[in-house]
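Hi again,

Forgot to attach this to my earlier email, sorry! This is the prediction with calcium ion bound. I've pasted everything inline since the attachment limit keeps bouncing my files.
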Amino acid sequence: MGRLLIVEDHAGLQDLLVRGLARAGIAADCARTASEASACIATVRYAAILLDRGLPDGDGVRWLRSLRTERITVPCLMLTARDALHDRIDGLEAGADDYLAKPFEMAELVARIRALMRRQASWVGLAATYGDVTIDPASAELRRGHASVTLSAAELQLMLALMRAQGAVVRRSALEAAAWGLSEPVTPNALDVALHRIRRKLVALGSRLELRNTKGIGHALVERIEDA
Ligand code: CA
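C-alpha cells for the complex follow:
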C-alpha cells in the first residue's frame, strides 16, 4: 500500500492520527500548512490525502481545488470540525472523495482511508507525444521506446505544458502555474530544480529532446539536430 499525506495543523491531532494509522499499518507523512502539503505532493506520489479544512495559511478546500486544477486526482478525505451541510458540499465540490466530521472514531477513519487507498490514484489526461518521447499521465511515465522514467507531479505537469507548446518558449510564470497551480511554488528556485530533474531524465532516456532556456523569458523543449 502507498503512503498517506496528512494535512493537519493541530499538533496533538496530527500525532494521534499518525499513531492510530501506523497501528493500522498505514504509513503517513505530515504537513502542517497548505504550502507544506504542496511541497509534499510535488515530491511524493501519495495514495491518499487526509485533509483538515482549517489550515494556518488558508482553507483546505481551496488548496484541494488548486490540486484538482492541476489535475492531481489523489483521493482525498476531508476532515472538518463541523458536520455542516455546506462544509460537506464545499469539500465534495472542490474534489474531495470522502468526508468525516470531527470528532471521529479512529476505526471509522482507518476504514475510510483504506477504502480510498485501494482506489487507484488516477491522473486525468491522455497520452501526449512529442519528438521521440511519449508521456502517459495515467502512470506519470515518460517513455522513449522501451525505456521509461517516472515523473513527479510537478515534473509531469511541466512536461505536458512543454510538449503541448511543440518547441515554442513557455514563460516561467506559465510553467509555475502548470506545476503548482494556485499555490506558491515550494521555493523560489523550485522551477529550476524541477527542470533540472527533467533534463536529467531526458538524458537518461537517450532522448534527442533538450530543454532550452531563454534567459528571463522561459523554456522550450526542442529537438536536437544530430550532426550528419
Ligand atoms: Ca485546523
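The longest strand covers residues 209-214. Residues 76 and 97 are 5 Å apart (CA to CA).

That should be everything now.

G.
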